[in-house]
Amino acid sequence: MVRSGRRHLPLVALLALLGTDMAAAAPNLCVANQNGVWSDQEELDRVGACKVCSADGTRCEQCWEFFSMNSSGDCVPCKATEYGEGTGAALTCISCKADDPSHCYNCGGRFLLREEPDDFQGFYADANGKCIQCPTPHCAECQNVTGVCLQCEPGYGLVGFFFDPAAAACTPCKAGCARCESADECSGCDYGYLPDPATGQCAPCPSNCQECSAANQCSQCKSGHTNVTTDGSACAACADPLCSFCAEGVDKCTSCSENGFGPDPATKRCVACTTPNCSSCSDSAATCTECGPGYVLDGATGACEPCKVQNCSWCRISSQTGQEECESCLNGYTSSVANADPITACVPGSA
Ligand SMILES: *[C@@H]1O[C@H](CO)[C@@H](O)[C@H](O)[C@H]1NC(C)=O
Ligand SMILES: *[C@@H]1O[C@H](CO)[C@@H](O)[C@H](O)[C@H]1NC(C)=O
Ligand SMILES: *[C@@H]1O[C@H](CO)[C@@H](O)[C@H](O)[C@H]1NC(C)=O
Ligand SMILES: *[C@@H]1O[C@H](CO)[C@@H](O)[C@H](O)[C@H]1NC(C)=O
Ligand SMILES: *[C@@H]1O[C@H](CO)[C@@H](O)[C@H](O)[C@H]1NC(C)=O
Q1: How confident is the model at residue 82 (pLDDT cuts 50, 70, 90)?
Q2: Fewer CB in a 10 Å sphere around the end CB: N or C, the chain?
Q3: Residue-wise pLDDT tens digits, 101-130
């Protein structure tokens, strides 16, 4: 709950300042919040969300974004339209009507349709101030009130807008293109591709190459790979599966992956972490620093112990209670109580 942008002086202080007969006319002093939307809850509770106070300092003239002024002159939080649990809506209301915080003028956030690949739609504020999913599939941003698409989600280009905005559609960019104005005009390539001025599209880098300066010139191989030709035209997998970089050659590891320790200076190879169910070790192969899903590090023994909650994927010892708490469930399981923190039981189902 956010309190008003006004600060009431204690009555005793007012009486001392003004004399008892003037107390009734005492002004309510406005306090401008300097940090605005970056304030923490404690600061909002203390000073409120007024952005600009009136010249005489008695009232708030303008509230910060995400707040609107009610008829008493207080800045109250805008309320985004409610969508139920599990609908994929992650929504905020950036500006709303004075006196009606539920009437949104500018909706922020997105509607996640599918996690993989990251597929979402934006929201717009309709004429009634309700936040609605943009009607055009794969549209990231659309016009207030009309819902006409202005910008597509990454990997899609807006087509047809010029001829008939209302009929504009988002079409997939061509292979290797991360952002496009239309399917024919690519403006940014995916990792592993480079712009090809001849086609206006993206051409693949050499295989297993993450970044290249030309189609046969790799400047950075993918993790776990190294350039195996002196001209950088090819990348090959490091010989050691625990190796993440082998810049000096496929059999000479320079950096081990998280679940490996080393490399050993003599053999240039990595040693697997020795603690069972450990996902990351440092200092030595036997010093586990992080356990795999479903396990928690026992600070006293250094062992990975199964989470107490069955089918929990991530549990940790709370610094506040000293108790083990489950934070998330394994894939295919969900908290028995929605939004529970900590989770007390993981049951079959999806979040
Ligand atoms: C305005 O907001 C403040 C703080 O939330 C509240 O105390 C007050 O009653 C509101 N005024 C009206 C008219 O709703
Ligand atoms: C919607 O309207 C708000 C102001 O009410 C404006 O700030 C915002 O940019 C508009 N959004 C779009 C996509 O036109
Ligand atoms: C990889 O490229 C670097 C310079 O970019 C070079 O120093 C190194 O010798 C190359 N490694 C191999 C195996 O060709
Ligand atoms: C945890 O380690 C034990 C002993 O090495 C092994 O049997 C078990 O399969 C491991 N659990 C997981 C989830 O990998
Ligand atoms: C989930 O927990 C149950 C016990 O509640 C257990 O029988 C089952 O093997 C677990 N499933 C997985 C995938 O760990």
Answers
A1: confident
A2: N
A3: 999 999 988 887 776 667 788 999 999 999
Ligand 3 site-directed mutation target among 217, 227, 233, 248, most atoms within 8 Å of CB: 227
State the distance between the two ends of the chain, measured CA to CA, in whole angstroms. Answer: 28
User: From ligand 3's centre to the CA of 236, what distance in Å?
Assistant: 12
Residue 311 has phi, psi (to 5 degrees) of 65, 20
pLDDT for residue 39: 85
Distance 55 CA to ligand 1 centre (A): 22
Each domain of the chain, given as residue ranges in start order, spans 7-152
Q: Which two tokens stand for residue 114?
A: 């599918």
Question: Which residues have C-beta atoms less than 6 Å from ligand 3?
Answer: 226-230, 232, 249
Tokens of 253: 């590891």
Q: Which two tokens stand for residue 40?
A: 């923490």
Residue 319, pLDDT above cutoff 80: yes
Q: In sequence order, what are the residues at sequence separation of 6 or more whose Cβ sits closer than 8 angstroms to the Cβ of residue 197?
A: none
Q: Which atom of ligand 5 is nearest to the CA of 294?
A: 14
CB contact set of 14 (below 8 Å; sequence gap of 6+): 23, 26
Question: Helix/strand/coil (H, E, C) string of 319-335?
Answer: CCCCCEEEEEECCCEEE
Best CA proximity match to 216, nearest among 205, 224, 229: 205
